[in-house]
Amino acid sequence: MTGIVAGLSTAERRDVVGDQYGDREYIKRALAGETYVSEPIEAASGNEIVTVSAPIVRDGAVVGALNAAFHLSDAGFFARPTENVDTPKGVTVRSASGRVIYSDQPMPDSSLEVYNATLEETSWTISVAESRTLIEPTMRRVTVLQFLGVFVVVASLAGFGWWNYRRNLKQVERLLDGFAALEDGDYGVAVDIGGAEEWDRIGAGFNEMSATVEQSLEASRERARQLQVLDRLLRHNLRNELNVVRGRAELLLTDDPGDVTEHAERIVRRCDALLESAEKERAINRVIGEGTTVESVDVPAVVESAVDGVADDYPEATVEVDAPASAPASAVPYVETAVHELVENAVEHADAAHASVAVSVDASDSTVAVSVADSGPGIPEMERRVLDGRADIDALHHSQGLGLWLVYWIVDRSGGSLEFADNDPAGSVVTIEFPRADE
């Protein structure tokens, strides 16, 4: 210690100056560059004191500490902080540990309203208390005024709300009902909003969006179904055909040379079947993947062309055609492919040595239908159910090939229909129907 200011005699100050106080907390804090205010402590005199210390800096370096001790019992210590507090109010000061170090209770000391604040430098909490009995009359007047103000505001809002509801909110509710329907999966829902011209435009926009969403989702579902069909059928056909090819190849390694021709012929037939499946898969992708638009197609003409193509490939088969001179239909430009697939399928699966197939074209005011009747074993019921949508594709465990699916998607893209029936006395009748085109 180099100096001290206190109510001490010269001899007492001389005894104190020069002592070491470096182990004191407030000295350590100050020498570390911190301004520090201690918790209230009891001094040797019995008084509670608060020690305040601050660093002494010279040329940017801390060279000492300036320290002061304040006696809390001295009324002047809290005089400045409390001089602006009205007499009816009371002040209580608590140290960081929660001990009360100053208290001046309000009068009267009942029904208190208390406000707290914390002094950042010391973490002391200062509480100012005031009896509610002194402010209750003012509070009652304020409450009445607030109630009247709230009533006026609510009444105004109610009137405005009713006017706004009549003008706008009914339309908003109808629009929200439309969005709720979309959220529930009711795609394609239309709303009639009504109201001003702006609302009519909003309603038209919503209906257009709803229809677009429905079309998009329907296209996605159909595309997923197409991919599922192609995956299942191609995997089934590839597995079966490649098993035959592998088996025949293994026999070539072990059999007598005289069997080589038979095995080679079987391998060639199976490879041809695989190539045919690949070509049909490409045709399916052209039909469903190119966004083909419908056009006017003269159905009797394309039927004659398709039948001539089958006759060239199967000269021993008999195919009879009954068709009018002309019957235009609205369809994608693959109707000949569909008819060729149906006729070829009927010829290939005929039970007799010489297949007999009947093709007829029937035209009405609204549709043009092509029916292909054969006397073969018929199309399996499960395959019929999957093709016409009565069963899921997961139920399809076998298939005659991709031909019928190619027919299905040509008809589907044309906006037509595909139907199956039993022939009498045996076989099946497959009918594809298209919308009639304007002459």
Automatic annotation (TrEMBL):
Q: Which InterPro entries match?
A: 2C_sensor_his_kinase, HAMP_dom, HATPase_C_sf, HATPase_dom, His_kinase_dom, HisK_dim/P_dom, Sensor-like_sf, Sig_transdc_His_kin-like_C
> From the UniProt record, which GO molecular function terms apply?
ATP binding; phosphorelay sensor kinase activity
User: Which membrane topology term applies here?
Assistant: Multi-pass membrane protein
- Record's keyword annotation contains Methyltransferase: no
| Keywords from the named record | ATP-binding, Cell membrane, Kinase, Membrane, Nucleotide-binding, Phosphoprotein, Transducer, Transferase, Transmembrane, Transmembrane helix
Q: Does the keyword Cytoplasm apply?
A: no
Q: Where is the protein found, in the record's own terms?
A: Cell membrane
What are the residue boundaries of the Histidine kinase domain, all occurrences included?
233-438
Classification via CDD domains: HisKA
**Which EC numbers does the record give?**
2.7.13.3
One Gene Ontology cellular component annotation held by this UniProt entry: plasma membrane
Reaction catalysis annotation: ATP + protein L-histidine = ADP + protein N-phospho-L-histidine
Where does the sequence pass through the membrane?
142-163
| Top-level taxon of origin | Archaea
Enzyme class, broadest EC rank = transferase
Query: Residues in domain HAMP?
Result: 166-218
The family database entries (Gene3D superfamilies) matched by this protein are listed as: 1.10.287.130, Histidine kinase-like ATPase, C-terminal domain, PAS domain
Could you tell me what this protein is called? histidine kinase
Species per Swiss-Prot/TrEMBL record: Halobacterium bonnevillei
